[in-house]
Amino acid sequence: MLNINLSKLLKIGHLLNTTNILMLRYSFENILKMRSTCLLIRFLTVLFLITQANGQDRIITTGVPFLLITPDARAAGMGELGVATSADAYAQQWNPAKYAFSESRSGLGLSYTPYLRQLVDDIFLGNLTYFNKINERSSWAISLKYFSYGNVQFNDIMAGTIIDQGSKRPNEITFDLSYSLKLSENFAMSVAGRFLRSDLKIHNDMDATSANSLGVDIAGFYQSQSFDMGNLNGLIRGGFNISNIGPRLKYDEGGQMDFIPTNFRLGTGLDLIFDPSNILGVYLEFSKLLVPTPVGFYDSSNTLKGFRQPDVNFFNGIFKSFNDAPGGMQEELKEITWALGFEYLFSDTLALRAGYFNESEEKGSRRYMTFGAGLELNGMVIDISYLSSTSKIRNPLENTLRFSLSFNFDGSGSSLQTDDDSS
User: Fold this and answer.
1) What is the pLDDT of residue 162?
2) Count of C-beta atoms within a 10 Å radius of residue 21
3) Using CA atoms, how far apart are residues 303 and 285, in angstroms rounded to an integer?
4) Can you give the CATH number for the domain in which 184 is found?
5) Residue 253: pLDDT above 70?
6) What one-character-per-residue DSSP string does 246-294 give?
7) 10 Å Cβ neighbour count for 322?
8) How far is C-alpha 27 from the chain's CA centre?
9) What's the burial of 344, exposed, middle or buried (CB within 10 Å: 0-12/13-18/19+)?
10) What count of other Cβ atoms lies within 10 Å of the Cβ of residue 152?
11) pLDDT of residue 320
């Protein structure tokens, strides 16, 4: 029998309600019985979902869910949005088309995000991003994202004796490359390619391999010139991004294939420019997973056994995701999340941020307020953010401070600048 160290499981119990404990226990016990990599994947995925779900049956789940974790503290402080904010080093994660409007010629972003910090101390997301402007119209960027599930201990039980079979550190990694181009003075588009590798296999499972896939992002970004609003000036932004368009993941022969988190973001923003030293940005963003809604499946006696996603390819899954919810359009609308964010910028040096994120109670019930700040020092920007849940469901990042650093190499301007011409 395969066994997994129970220490993390026991810690989790302190923050979960009965329904979620049963979800975790069910996944764990099936791993013990079946030695299946796919079940290990389900167990690890539960770490993402147990603090967000409350027994809902049709919550959309995907493989490599870490792709949806906000990597940078600036976006995290504004309700975890970023498709229509001003350009910064982390635009690769939200909307690479923003790089075409960057004030800096090149920059680097570094971030570290602890995950489930109240439960364990070795699950984290790391991110490294670099961008470079080729000229005034085009730019490119590369990024590396690494997610570690921490150390997992494996044991065999023989004749009542536990035999150490070693440990493994499951992980997932992506490598991204993007190119953005200004199509006009105010509008740019970008395309990004992504290599995904998910190494969650059990070391003694002969059928298991690391799962690999490819993803493509298509994004657009609009930024107006500053315009007169009476006693102040204004600047409008808008953006969209369809990310992670690509084939499903498969971990072993005969195993279930998992969709990657193809996601559509649409947002807008308005900068209120009181003077060159005082700017308030207001942003609104909507997001929807372009993945089929789970549907019920039944046994031979027509008894409902549970819910699972239909077996269709990723391309068909994208189009099905708009009209496949059993509850019709009302349920489709519940699959859309929204976020509202604010950023006050003083003298291109100090930024104060706040935001709110909302998700339907039937689709995950993630609801939380965020707060953040940023400070620019000689081309280096330090960002910090904090999340406070307003939902009954605990958030994996609740009461966790997140930090990120970004660097402007050419010294042409502060990375906190809002890219408007009035300053």
Assistant:
1) 74
2) 15
3) 40
4) 2.40.160.40
5) no
6) -PPB--BTTPPPB----EEEEEEEEEEEEETTEEEEEEEEEEEE-SPPP
7) 13
8) 23
9) middle
10) 19
11) 87
Residues 96 and 219 sit within 8 Å (Cβ to Cβ):
yes
Residue 196 corresponds to which tokens in the numbers above?
Answer: 């995904």
| H or E element at residue 19 | helix 18-34
Of the candidate ranges 17-26, 76-85, 154-163, 356-365, the one whose mean pLDDT is the lowest:
17-26
Question: Rounded distance, CA 352 to CA 357, Å?
Answer: 17
Tell me how far apart the alpha carbons of residues 346 and 154 are, in angstroms, rounded to a whole number: 53
Distance CA 263, CA 347 (A): 35
Residues 6+ apart with CB under 8 A from 137: 100, 181, 182
Helix%, strand%, coil% for the chain, nearest 5: 15, 45, 40
Residue with the bigger pLDDT between 212 and 161: it is: 212
Q: Is residue 131 part of a domain?
A: yes
Longest dimension (CA), the chain: 82
pLDDT of 335 above 50: yes
Q: Identify the pLDDT of residue 157.
A: 72
Ramachandran class of 185: left when φ > 0, alpha when ψ lies in -120 to 50, beta otherwise? alpha
Helix, coil or strand: residue 404: strand
Residue 105 structural domain: 59-408
Does 15 reside within a domain?
A: no
Q: How is 216-254 classified by DSSP, letter by letter?
A: EEEEEEEEPPPEE-SSSEEEEEEEEEEEEE-PPB--BTT
pTM for the complete prediction? 0.82
**Residue 71 confidence (pLDDT):** 93
- Asked if the structure places residue 420 within a domain, the reply is no
Residue whose C-alpha is closest to residue 343's, from 72, 82, 69, 68 = 82
Q: pLDDT tens digits for 316-333?
A: 889 888 888 888 888 889
Contact by Cβ (8 Å): 418, 376 = no
End-to-end CA distance of the chain: 66
pLDDT grade, residue 378 (50/70/90)? confident
Determine, yes or no, domain membership for 382: yes
Structure tokens at 332: 């489709």
8 Å CB contact between 58 and 362 = yes
Tally of structural domains, the chain: 1
pLDDT at 254: 59
Q: How far from the centroid of its chain's Cα atoms is residue 337's Cα?
A: 13
Q: Residue 250 and residue 313: Cα distance in Å, rounded?
A: 12
